[in-house]
Amino acid sequence: MDSAGDTAPITAREGPARAGRDATAVVAALSAYAYLWTCRRVGARARTFGRPAIVNGANVEIGDDVVLDSRAGRVELAAGRRGRLAIGHGVRVGPSTRIVAARYVEIGDGTRIGAGCVVSDASAEPVGEASDVWIGDGVTLGDGVRVLPGTVIGAGAIVAPGAVVSGRIPAGSQVVAGTDAQH
Fold first, then answer.
1. Per the confidence metrics, is the pTM higher than 0.70?
2. Mind listing the pLDDT tens digit for each residue in 142-157?
């Protein structure tokens, strides 16, 4: 420990690596404020890697410790004119993910959303109605998951990569990959 007693000394070998990680964290924190300024609320320690696309940020709320990773593909957060998108604390969103709220989408605390996912409360059909989407705390969505309008996913559920989910998914359940994984 050093003289202050709060950290271990940095060796010559780990110094540059640690400095690089620290610099990346600072850039991610600063870029969050630059890219998310249009949002209604951005929590403490929110970070962005790459540049996310925010559409109608006035209706987007982002909790504390959220990470949006747009390095390999742009994350898009969109809220309709009367829509509301609420992202909880500690949520991680993977690259190329699109989250759209025509009416209401809520993502619970500690949720992990993989790369290339689509979460939307509106159908692709022009006459389709929006139907709220609720994703509980601690949910894991694998890469390429599609969450259809009206879906409720219970806390702690795990949705396998490539699954298309609709309806109610019970808390703590594991959904197998495939089309229309419903419970």
1. yes
2. 999 999 999 999 999 9
Q: Which residue, 49, 55, 56, is CA-closest to 74? A: 49
Cβ atoms 149, 127 nearer than 8 A: no
DSSP character at residue 132: -
Q: For residue 117, what are the domain limits?
A: 15-182
Residues sharing a CB contact under 8 Å with residue 148, sequence separation 6 or more, in sequence order: 120, 123, 164, 165, 166
Count structural domains, the chain.
1
* Tens-place pLDDT, residues 46-92: 999 999 999 998 999 999 999 999 999 999 999 999 999 999 999 99
**CATH number, domain containing residue 88:** 2.160.10.10
